[in-house]
Amino acid sequence: MNQIFKARVFRSEWRKLRRPTLFLGTMLASAGLTGLVTSLLFLLIDSPQGNSDRGNMISREILQLPSGLTIGFSNAAGLLGIVALCVFAAQTAQEYTYGTLRNLLVRQPRRLQLLLGKYVSMASFAIVMVILAAVVSMSLAFGLSGRAKVETDAWVTSDALQEMAKTFGNVLLSVIAFGTVGMILGLLLRSPISAISLGVIWLLIVENILVAVKSSLGNWMPGNLMSIIAVGGTTDISYTHAISMVSIYLVASTAIVITLFKRRDVSN
Amino acid sequence: MVGMSNLAVAVQDLSKKYGDTFAVSHANFEVPMGTVCGFVGPNGSGKTTTIRMLLGLISPTGGTGEILGHSIKHPEKYLASVGAMIEGPAFYPALTGRENLNVLATLGGYGTDHVQSLLERVGLGDRGNSKYKTYSLGMKQRLGIAASLLPNPKLLILDEPTNGLDPEGIQEVRDLLKSLAQEGTTVFVSSHLLSELELISQHLVMLRKGKVLFAGKIEDLFLAQQPFILVKTPNESDLPKISEIAAAAGHKSTIRSGVAHIEGPAEWAAELNKSAFAMGITLSQLSPMLPSLEETFFEMTGDSE
Asked: What ipTM describes this predicted complex?
């Protein structure tokens, strides 16, 4: 019985998510951003200003490795995460601003199931988004490899397939974590504009300023850690540390918003 | 007292407090099954807060309530049989009317097969594929009513369903509510259009400043009110004599705008006519009346607005 209720919420939520402006707009944005990051990676391969984020250089030798095929994709994860954050935050907070939450709760009074159904449907939306981004990025990588004089022999090996699966999993985890932050902010602030503004300003500006002032803060900043999950860890911050910290942050804040959502009066 | 199994709504001492202020204070009322019950009160009297508590959207501070035999603490046990429109319609502007209903039909597990028939029932059959943001206020209100009918409800709770509707639309809503009641649906409807509620309601719950002033059959309310007789004469100068006849019979009267208002039962009108004739006064109007719901409401609430 419980399962049926969740499926109803899931299908109902998808009726909103599949509207052309939202669905096509988000997919185009994700494909465009991933395509841009991947294109720059190959087109600027010989540029002295670098071809990756923050002017980093990713050489031809690294791109020719089995993991080279998905570097563009994993580098775009932060941007995909921001897109997911916006979608999750908007879809959650708009229920308050439109006043539609009361309709939803009359038709599904089990608040936890409503929240879970919404979350699972948005997570599945994020999966579609990440699959599309992966396809666009890898297609572009193959397409631009000739021009960038990057050998692709290692990209079609079983090692490459393993790397691809691992990177896809990590990017997906990272994107869904960003999205979860969006949903949490949406539930807390109950306004799409406030939730998106706060999320984007914190993740793109405040964290970068804090890390620039004191680099060790990068170990604790949620946005930085979620991006590190996407690339499978860095020399400074391990994958395990990033996963652990992000899990702690998300579990704690999710517990708070679930409690609030279950108990809070639904009024204007 | 109606048996509990015959009650669609029953609340005892239901209260909601915000800070030090009671939005609803110790409300007690019952709505029998299969009736149309009007829920009236001025703005801020606690109508919407009460409705929100009945629908499980807000928690009561105190008291208890039952909907269709289930405690309001467990809205999941009765909401599948309840249709509701609270505080006007609220839908997704970028979706069409039909898609908006589909969202709620899917969520409630009702299927989307009868969405078109519902759109037609509320007069939106040809506008179902238009985006909600293009709807007029009246059309939005109709869509809200259609959404409330999705579960084929045993109990329909509507908060100001005629807001924004033109006279024709108001008539249609009135007919719709009447037909639903005839089909056995209990309708609990709040409105500030008291004359509308008077036409369709058998029961009434009257609220002011969070307190229930009256709850019961509408005829019981009127029976408790003072009937009066309106008298007009061709010559206005005869009206003081009419007042004298009334005073002699122990009835209070006032003269306003060329009409004598005499507090007295309908049966005394014939006696008055006889006395006036004996004094050579011709009456051009002699109308025994009961106060309207609006007049009764204002009298009970002491509100002249």
From this structure: 0.90
